[in-house]
Amino acid sequence: MTPAEIKAVLQAAFNNCDLANCSLSDQQKQILLQVVEELAVRQLQLDTNSLELNTANPLDELSADQRSRLLQFVKEQEQQNRPWKIQLLNDWLEERDSGQVQFIRDRYGVQWLNSIKPVHIAEYADDGEEALKLKVGDRIEVSNSLWEWVQETGPCSREWVTCTVINVSEIGEGNYVSTKCIIRFNNGVEYEIQGVYQWNRYNWRWPQA
Questions:
Q1: Is residue 164 part of a domain?
Q2: Contact call for residues 180 and 195 (beta carbons, < 8 A)
Q3: Which of 67, 101, 124 finishes a domain?
Q4: 102 near 88, Cβ under 8 Å?
Q5: How would you class 182 by CB atoms within 10 Å of its CB: exposed for 0-12, middle for 13-18, buried for 19 or more?
Q6: How many independent structural domains does the chain possess?
Q7: Residue 10 burial by CB count (10 A; 0-12/13-18/19+): exposed, middle or buried?
Q8: Rounded to the nearest 5 degrees, what angle is found at the Cα of 74, between the Cα atoms of 143 and 70?
Q9: Contact between residue 200 and residue 177 where contact means Cβ atoms under 8 Å apart
Q10: Which residue among 124, 158, 178 closes a domain?
Q11: CA distance 112 to 72
């Protein structure tokens, strides 16, 4: 609530007190207004800090060497079609050493691990290389430029729509292989994206929140 809304609510409460013959003194009203406004400001600060924490990339906390080891681990697991987080959690549950990424268990823990989203991994991926491959069930955001003409500035600008990946397949052979996927929007409509890692990479992204 804004300060103006808070004052309006309190004023209504003061009026009800007057009607019930339990009027507050001017000093009591001023104290209540001051306390509630201070609480509102404090809550706003907490909400702002929480938003900053939620939007920060957990990988920023790692050293360059630690980040490199984690990204290499993610890449290796992806190549073997194994979810990298599940692999780490299984190591921890079974008390197995996690090798080059053992430091995550020793220094950061499960809560930090769970805070990592695909978008965080993508931020540190090498240019032109996908750290995480799309899988059935992944939630992504796609640009409306896939199906309509848009401009960076103008009446028809880029918009992002959330959807779910329901199929991923490779086409081609030899040295040239491209990947296509089918997505499903929340309204049930399905759409096929060709060249998701090639010419259409610009038109999709991992969820930003």
A1: yes
A2: yes
A3: 124
A4: no
A5: middle
A6: 3
A7: middle
A8: 115
A9: no
A10: 124
A11: 18
The domain of 79 spans 58-124
Taking Cα atoms as reference points, which of 144, 117, 121, 125 lies closest to residue 203? 144
In a domain, 131, yes or no: no
140: left (phi over 0), alpha (psi -120 to 50) or beta: beta
- In this prediction, residues 87-97 reach a mean pLDDT of 87
Residue 140 contacts residue 161 (beta carbons within 8 Å): no
Residue 132 resides in a domain: no
Do both 45 and 67 map to the same domain?
no
Residue-level length of the chain? 209
DSSP sequence for 30-65: HHHHHHHHHHHHHHHHHHHHHHHHHHS-GGGGS-HH
| pTM for this predicted structure | 0.59
Q: Determine which helix (DSSP H) or strand (DSSP E) holds 100, and give its type and residue range.
A: none
Task: For residue range 9-47, list pLDDT tens digits in order.
Answer: 677 777 877 888 888 788 877 777 776 666 666 665 555
- Asked whether 39 and 94 are in contact (CB, 8 A), the reply is no
